[in-house]
Amino acid sequence: MTKITFVTPSGERIETEAENGATVMETAIINGVPGIVAECGGACTCATCHVYVEENWRETVGGPSMMEEDMLDFAFDVKDSSRLSCQIKVRDNLDGLVLHVPTRQG
């Protein structure tokens, strides 16, 4: 299992175990991570699963696709580290990944 940590706006750290092949959004929903709404269920048609990837993980996670970049336009407080968690597939090399949940979703 791949370990992923979500950090809430209040600083609470929620450590999860994720199935490879699932999405980070699915992992957040299964584990009840507050702030990850996922209104579209992972279809990349909303911006309610927005997360910030910690700096040291950005290269490993990779950047957003063009479609994801378009959807990030609807997210609140987008940064260079912004990603939609529905577009990040869990894999072995993401073990230990740390993501920050924004104060609100788009």
Features:
106 residues; alpha+beta; five-stranded mixed beta sheet
Describe the structure.
With 106 residues, this protein is an alpha+beta fold. The protein is built from 3 helices and 5 strands, in the order E-E-H-E-H-H-E-E. The chain has a 5-stranded mixed beta sheet. The radius of gyration is 12 Å and the shape is globular.
Order of helix and strand elements from N to C terminus: EEHEHHEE
Strand content: 15-25%
Largest sheet: 5 strands, mixed
**Number of H/I helices:** 3
Question: How many β-strand runs?
Answer: 5
Concise account of the structure shown:
This protein is an alpha+beta fold and 106 residues long.
List the helices and strands and how they pair.
Layout lengths: L1 E6 L5 E6 L5 H7 L19 E4 L4 H4 L4 H7 L9 E3 L12 E4 L6
Parallel strand pairs: 1-5
Antiparallel strand pairs: 1-2, 3-4, 3-5
